[in-house]
User: Fold this.
Amino acid sequence: MKKKNIVGIIIIALFVIGIAAALMQYKREQTALEQPEVGEEPETVVLSADENPFGVEIKKINENYDLTKNYYKNYDNKGLEKFVIPNIAIDERTYIAELRESGYCQYGYIDEEDNIIAEMTEQQKEDWIGNTEAVIHKTVLSADGEDLYKFAVSENYTMIEADVSINAHATKVMDNIMRLLEEIEIYQILNGNDSWSVNIVTKDFETGRELSNINFPKEEWNLSAEMWDE
Assistant:
């Protein structure tokens, strides 16, 4: 290959690399501009070996961490959808911190009526709905290999059927049910059902006998050995 051709190829390659680098920098700058300016973030801490033998990083919610809309310095919700998100799982401070870090909403805060509010774009809503469905399906499938319990969820995510043996690990079953309820709650709300509810039917794993039939959250759901005595 002639020297002139090699030099030409090198120049073209450098030109292409320069354009790619410029595009990457532009994308980083645009991403930064799209993110709302925020206040003080939760502190990431690693507890001592006595407190946390696995050395896992956790979020410590600072006392001054702002849970309200004032957390966002350049708040602008033009074009965003607004949803009230019930929290049935963890404390509000932790929930808000995790909501803000999830990427599934543009703004997450507590309003004047102490409601948890999530404001999001259409794409964020679709992503969040997709994630809820994935977790629901994964939770149902995870019980398929169990000998003492299994779950089924209706296509419209309004009903959970839990077949449970009296010998099943109650805490494990309840943890999975709560995970399903958390995701179904979000799924229904993001699909326009403000008065979300789930019919939970619990049956004896061995006999198929119905042990309980409740509508959550209007009625509480629990699992106890006494259910098999009734």
